[in-house]
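During the reporting period the student researcher (J.K.) took over the structure-prediction task from the postdoctoral fellow and processed the backlog of single-chain submissions. One of the processed entries is reproduced below for the supervisory committee.
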Amino acid sequence: MRNKSKFSPRLKRGSFGLLLLFPKEEELLYNNIKNYQWKEEFELRALLINPWIYDFSAYDLWMKPLGLLYIGAVLEENGFEVYLIDCLDRYHPEILRKIGRELLRGDKKYGCGNFYKEEIDKPENLKNVKRRYSRYGLPPDIFIKEIKNVPEPDVILVTSMMTYWYPALYDIIKIIREVYKNIPIILGGVYVTLAFEHAEKYLNVNKIVKGEGENQIAPVISEILGKARDNYKHYNSIDDYPFPSFHLLRNIRYLPVLTSRGCPFRCTFCASRIVSGKFRTRTPESVIDEIRFHRKKFNVLDFAFYDDALLVNKEKHIIPILEELLKNKIKIRFHTPNGLFPSMIDDEFANLMYRSGFKTVRLSLETVHPERLKDINFKVTVDDFERCIESLVKAGYKRKELESYILYGLTGQSVREVLETMVFAAKNGIKVRLAAFSPIPGTIEWERAITSGELSSDADLLITNKTLLPLRSKDFSFYVVNELKKFANIINYASDLEINMFRGSNISEILKKIFSTKEVKFIHF
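J.K. obtained the following structure tokens:
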């Protein structure tokens, strides 16, 4: 996708046309850009690239390159002309022309859906995996056409996501180098922050920016281009950041919103603190203004919270946000793909969630094993979880509308533990979302995987792909994982039918039809 910044260098207050729905919106947009002294010409042109994905599976679950769009907004605020090529654009005209219809198969309500994909050869060390490997997103020929359609940039910025998606970056950068041999490339994002040395070794870029880039990016570009400036804006807090440049996206059906960065917890499997630094929250006023502004500007109903700790200090943070939105009668649907902490949901807050329009409620259950809960980070207890479910049901949710994330494949974790956790969730009548453990560099579980021998210290990051858990684990074979997924499907089907087969049922007999006797006999109901 190619889109240009829609801000004009001659933009003045009062010239926003149809955006002037409320005086506050006009003032908000003006405040977003007033710190830039508009000039007749943009000084520099930046091209942002969100790469495609190589994997066994990928799905657009409210998935936008939010970090890259924040960087785009910062560059615009500092006088850059900004373009975007989004290789994960499901609505790219060339893709829709290829498939001969307006939507890809599998498009769901709330804006989620399947990426366009083409099967490709597996990397050599994945040849023995009996699953199809694909490129998700724009085919290379369309990507090349997009690059050539963009006015020649002064600098190219590429973002990164999962560490095991790095081969896609290699190919993206190779293509960029073939089209623009001498234009500097800057690489940022999750992968390079977690595996900086790996990125330096394998990727041919001019500069790698680790961590949050809002205060780094403009000075870095100046340094690379040899165009020193001392008047780039410095942001003292996350409230100072301009709103993400969503106007660069095509066909917006949902938007992400980030009300905080980092996480106060230190879960052994999570890298949030490494990627986003210490936990910080935005002011409720800033979040409210952003949601109101984007709701009106893009006429979008669905917003997905990207926070890792949305409910922390909820009395001073998320509660005032939701209450103000309700007060102003702003119709919105909220989704929580990252999972909510059940211990922080009581009757009062559950009622507020329901009235505010939380439609996708996913809860971080992880495990019911007390020792492992204590080890990975005691965010929830069995009693907390059950109280949370009862509060949500009392507020108006049906049990089949609630979902729980359950981890499997952690170092030292047994199949029994996962089954017991799945049954516990099912006894509460809610759905199960299995989350395969993927070791992340820099985390405690990464070190444990190496110490246990499940992962070598020099292992290719491709092997950390969640699909390849059976290649690393002696307990979670491909057979066991497939059987767990079948069991999850049965639980979810029963939940949809509002049938609870786990209370007062001889469930062991049912389980024996799905799992081996050896795996079932240790479970107590």
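The committee noted the following: Residues 5-40, 517-525 have pLDDT under 50 and may be disordered.
J.K. will present the remaining backlog at the next meeting.
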